[in-house]
UniProtKB/TrEMBL annotation:
It comes from the Eukaryota. It holds the Pfam family Macro. This is Macro domain-containing protein. It comes from Periophthalmus magnuspinnatus. InterPro entries: ADP-ribose_metab_enzymes, Macro_dom, Macro_dom-like. PROSITE patterns: MACRO (PS51154). GO terms for biological process: peptidyl-glutamate ADP-deribosylation. Coiled coil: none annotated.
């Protein structure tokens, strides 16, 4: 028994969460986006930098005055961009609780505005150091009885380490000749 393509695709779909490898920003234009930030809206490292470049709106986000465990929202080209506030200041680390609360907050915004698709990176797992096993359980728990489907984008391994290294601003190691 070889798996049919449909069965294979279903396998990658755990409940209403789908995992894909690729560039988050290449997701369909009608899908909302989400990522984690700190309450100070610094967005100085990791994928947040790309969100800041692409969507701007830092002042608008600050004006919303959202706090840890909530989410701030920008509307861009007929879709929403969710900023999950998982920590007070950029140098802090988030907790699983703050992540879960901010996802719940995003879920109620989605429900209110009829959003059914959200794409996100592996939230909390880059520079924030949360464990993906637990984060994916939280995602499942938050969205399982909703009609919101989540697509989680992972960069191909190689790029992910390069991106991580750049965002930590380490000097590249000298290669031995």
């Amino acid at each position: 028994g070889e798996l049919s393509l449909d069965e294979f695709i279903d396998g990658a779909r755990r409940d209403n969460i789908t995992y894909v490898t690729g560039d988050l920003f290449s997701c369909p234009r009608d899908e909302s986006l989400a990522h984690c930030i700190s309450e100070d809206c610094r967005m100085g490292a990791g994928i947040a930098v790309m969100f800041k470049k692409k969507f701007g709106g830092v002042e608008e986000l600050k004006k919303q005055g959202r706090q840890v465990g909530q989410c701030a929202v920008l509307e861009r080209d007929s879709r929403f961009v969710y900023y999950l506030i998982t920590k007070k200041i950029y140098s802090h680390k988030p907790t699983y609780d703050s992540l879960k609360q901010s996802l719940e907050d995003m879920k109620s915004h989605c429900a209110e505005y009829g959003v059914s698709k959200v794409s996100m990176p592996r939230i909390g797992c880059g520079l924030d150091r949360l464990h993906w096993g637990r984060v994916s359980d939280i995602l499942k728990e938050v969205f399982e009885h909703s009609n919101i489907s989540i697509t989680v984008y992972s960069l191909p391994e190689k790029t992910e380490t390069t991106v991580m290294r750049e965002s930590k601003r380490e000097a590249p190691r000298k290669r031995k000749h």
